[in-house]
Specification:
Blueprint lengths: L4 E5 L3 H12 L4 E5 L2 H10 L4 E5 L7 H11 L4 E6 L4 H10 L3 E4 L4 H32 L9 H13 L6 E5 L5 H10 L8 E5 L5 H9 E2 L11 E2 L1 H4 L4 E5 L6 H13 L1 E3 L6 E3 L3 E6 L3 H6 L5 H7 L2 E5 L9 H16 L5 E2 L1 H9 L5 H15 L4 E2 L1 H4 L18 H15 L4 H8 L3 H10 L4
Parallel strand pairs: 1-2, 1-3, 3-4, 4-5, 6-13, 6-14, 7-10, 10-13, 15-16
Antiparallel strand pairs: 8-9, 11-12
Helix pairs in contact: 2-3, 3-4, 13-15, 17-18, 18-19
């Protein structure tokens, strides 16, 4: 992050002109002020990467100017100039927040070196800020994890969508993390300090959906004993997530479209028009174009929602993210359950990456949570995971379709087939002892 704009503040014209000539030859844009008061007026109007100021000046001295600059422009690096006999002022300036100080008489090479140091410092700050944002984005509270090309594209779209107010439509299969993307957009946007309100459109009948979204007045219907604010009002200045927007009626869609267009509505049973400033994010697991063609979704509402479309790919299309996700969930549930499972057996990880995960990330998380609770060893094995993939990777069985004993038996049978009946190798793959596998063979009457 290069230094471009520099302000020189000194009541001595010779010093100002000298620094101006030295730094202009280095390619910097220079502005000058003869005292602290005129310098402050410039800082209020313009941004400076670096300000070089003398300590002793009439009116506002350098130390007072430094404090005011730090309030007005915290990211500006301030370099103070002091005479040899007033080093204590320079020390005081460093405590207040000066980047560095120079002693008079100033040598050209000296000021050049300090400005170069400022460049390096600013680059480090910027890099640190970037890395923190990357960590938050990849491994932060949103649990958006992945390094696949598909996920990198999602992060890019989140960054582009976040600063805007435009409506976002997030679509993808169930369990892909649509709500997490919505939260990431909100909490990286200028609205991050305002409410993030969610409404599941598929969970409520139409009459309740309207009253939840728009609120209602006292006496609007039986049971309305007091006025209630709706989700739109609660989300004022923030973000409203309309989950599964495709599951709504045409009548509701018409009312929603009006709010999107006019940014106003009336509560159920009310006549007062309420203005709102809300950013809308909608999600769906359906193909909305087909819903429009079939008459289930208003075409004008579709175009109103689909300003910034974000598609979340299923887990089977980004299998390189499975190890990252698996280890993240392992760490999470180790902490929650007070366990110390070290990781996954090699065969277990291989099975997870081969499995097609119809329930996507949500299914993977549930599987690992269950496996961690059931596991009795240091590593999670295929038997713990309750996930069956046959040796030819065609026999995919979803979690919950078999009992634990049936799952365990099938895993042992498939593993023994894979190693041609070698119990020692099968035990190594499954992460159990030979004695244990022998007992299991006997228990399940495996031939």
């Amino acid at each position: 992050m290069a230094v471009e704009n520099i302000l020189i503040v000194d009541d001595e014209p010779l010093v100002r002109n000298f620094l101006n000539e030295v730094l202009k030859r280095e390619g910097y844009r220079i502005d000058m002020a003869a005292d602290g008061e005129s310098a402050l007026k410039k800082v209020e109007r313009n941004y400076y990467d670096v300000i070089i100021t003398d300590v002793r000046m009439p009116g506002i001295n350098g130390l007072a100017l430094l404090e005011k600059i730090k309030d007005l422009s915290p990211s500006t690096a301030v370099i103070v100039i002091t005479a040899y006999g007033s080093i204590e002022n320079a020390v005081e300036a460093m405590k207040v927040g000066a980047y560095d100080y120079l002693t008079k008489p100033i040598v050209p090479e000296q000021i050049k070196i300090v400005i170069r140091k400022v460049c390096k410092y600013r680059n480090l700050i910027e890099e640190n800020r970037y890395l923190r944002s990357e960590i938050n984005r990849f491994y932060g509270s949103y649990e958006l994890i992945g390094k696949s090309p598909a996920m990198r594209n999602i992060y890019r779209l989140i960054n582009k969508a976040a600063p805007a107010k435009s409506t976002v439509l997030i679509y993808g299969e169930t369990g892909t993390g649509k709500e997490l993307v919505a939260r990431a957009i909100h909490y990286t946007s200028p609205r991050k300090d305002k409410p993030f309100i969610k409404l599941n459109c598929a969970a409520l009948p139409e009459d309740l959906l309207e009253s939840e979204l728009f609120g209602y007045e006292k006496g609007a219907f039986t049971g309305a004993t007091e006025k209630k604010e709706g989700r739109f009002e609660l989300a004022h200045k923030g973000t409203l997530l309309l989950d599964e927007i495709s599951e709504t009626s045409h009548n509701f869609q018409t009312k929603l479209l009006r709010v999107l267009q006019e940014e106003e509505f009336e509560r159920v049973g009310g006549t007062k028009t309420i203005k709102v400033d809300v950013r809308i994010i909608a999600t769906t697991n359906r193909d909305l174009k087909k819903a429009v063609e079939k008459g289930k979704l208003r075409e004008d509402l579709y175009y109103r929602l689909n300003v910034i479309p974000i598609y979340l790919p299923p887990l089977r299309e980004r299998k390189e993210d499975i190890p990252l996700l698996a280890n993240y969930f392992l760490k999470k549930y180790n902490h929650q359950n007070g366990r110390k499972i070290k990781g996954f057996s090699t065969d277990c990880m291989e099975l997870m990456t081969k499995y097609h995960w119809p329930g996507n990330v949500r299914e993977l998380e549930n599987a690992i949570q269950r496996a961690l609770i059931m596991s009795e060893g240091e590593f999670i094995t295929p038997a713990d995971l309750s996930l069956i993939i046959s040796s030819n990777s065609t026999d995919n069985i979803r979690i919950g379709e078999m009992s634990l004993e049936e799952l365990e038996k099938k895993v042992i049978i498939n593993t023994l087939k894979k190693v041609k009946g070698n119990r020692t190798k099968a035990a190594e793959i499954l992460g159990i002892s030979v004695k244990t596998i022998r007992n299991k063979i006997k228990k399940y009457h495996i031939g």
